[in-house]
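By way of example, what follows is a protein record of this kind.
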Amino acid sequence: MTVIRKLVSQRSAALALAVVAGLVLLAVAAPLITWIAGSSPTAFHGDAVDPGLGGLPRGAAGGISTRHWLGVEPVNGRDVLARVVYGAQVSLLIAVLATVLSVLLGTALGLVAGFFGGWVDTVIGRTMDLLLSFPSLIFMIALISAAPGTDRRLLLVVVLGFFGWPYVGRIVRGQAMVLARGEFVAAARVLGASRRALLVREVLPNLTGPVLVVATMSIPGYIATEAGLSFLGVGVQAPTPSWGQMIATAVPWYASDPAYFLIPGVFLFVTVLAFNVLGDAVRDALDPRSQRR
């Protein structure tokens, strides 16, 4: 509760928290929103585009009307609002699940490496160095492209989490090394606490702050990476909507229909910015020494 109060007391953090909460609500309520709007993300509306103009939406600003609140896609006439809200659902779900996977793996392996040291630390530490030395984007593209016929959303979660856990592991490992040499751990060891008890009851609870910060700051990175992979054509595939996929489709139309290009781009920009600001605020709230003066 103290962290929440600190976040609310900062104008930028409170605004970022409100934006993030609004985006999450938008994603959760996507079926309800599209039901109210009367359209689905996969339905074609041929009457909303003009074949005589090469498939451009009828009307101004990309076909914005009372029927299509954010307009329609050129050529096929799919509702942009429906695809944007379902794209938010896809992006946030992939980012959150990838963050959970990377945090679980990174925390577990980093905790073990930092606490036990020795050959355990050497093996886990060198594994982290090896994964961090890979050009991750290239390997992500290669791995996803080499697995046709699979659920791309699940595959993205696994691939992003696999390449993301070493970043979490390094932070946890460093903190665990310091905590393992703390006086409270030594006192618990003298009192007869087992290694498991030392890990779970003494060291792990003191890692909550750093893990929460790195988790919050990992989400925008995963959202941007998923959008980038979908933009390149190896991420989420049509007809499943994705912001990156929508931007890629809109590139040829940016001059004649800029609204179709701008709307998913603005949603992506605002989401990543809000999560980054929120991550900085969480870090400052948990560690006042890190606050910028």
In short: Strands lie at 49-50, 56-57. The longest helix spans residues 80-116. DSSP finds twelve helices and two strands in the chain.
